[in-house]
Protein: Lipoprotein releasing system ATP-binding protein LolD
Amino acid sequence: MTDPRVSAIAEELLTARKHAREAVTHPHQQPALRLDGLVRAFHQGTRRIDVLKGASVDILPGQAVALVGPSGAGKSTLLHIAGLLETPDSGHVIVNGRDCSGMGDADRTRVRRVEMGFVYQFHQLLPEFSALENVMIPQLIRGRSKSQAAERARELLGTLGLAERLEHRPAQLSGGEQQRTAIARALANSPRLILADEPTGNLDPYTAEHVFEALLHLIHTTGVAALIATHNMDLARRMDRVLRLEGGALVEVQPLGLT
Ligand SMILES: Nc1ncnc2c1ncn2[C@@H]1O[C@H](COP(=O)(O)OP(=O)(O)OP(=O)(O)O)[C@@H](O)[C@H]1O
Structure:
């Protein structure tokens, strides 16, 4: 017989996914992220590579959105632009209703710190600090007190199953534990938007599954919006929406129809 706690969690997840899908058809909510007509080309010698040719999308709070496409399609380029690390040749990045296109460096950094969390394939945790400290640091930078930051870090790491690993340094954690710590760090300041580039790409399939489930659970329970680039079609089809980069544009595809 299924453990009732498992059934309750499964039901909670299904309801959250249903709401996230419904949000697509009830776009009265303000998007956490709007990409509007992004264009980006690179020049190499005399050669010009048109990577983005008018990529647009709205992502609503609580939606986990997969970003797929073949190698070289422009997924990382799009994430860098959405994360305000690069500027497009034209087009707009609108975060929680604010157009960030014309912002200077200081404002872009502030929006990144306050509104966004980043998860990369290689977690980039600070090796000399414990898991707890790694999750506290972005909060201390934001001006939270040490005790508040520690409380929030404990709560997040506990939710991710790392309550017994708080004092471990990255080298003393498994790959999956390191990546879960990185997810906790990304969520530490309660961002409105998570941007993730192959967040489970360096993990074995079993560990990847656990890390992905933890990430999905947090997206659906906190209401953060997430754009997650992945080559893993099994993971992509379990997200609320799937966007494929095709010919420099974003095309919405049906998760269940993915190959
Ligand atoms: N700084 C740069 N200078 C020149 N070309 C670049 C630069 N950055 C990216 N490109 C080119 O832009 C294209 C898109 O690269 P991008 O890394 O965004 O693709 P991707 O979809 O993330 O690929 P992958 O799945 O392999 O990570 C590639 O052809 C790449 O060579």
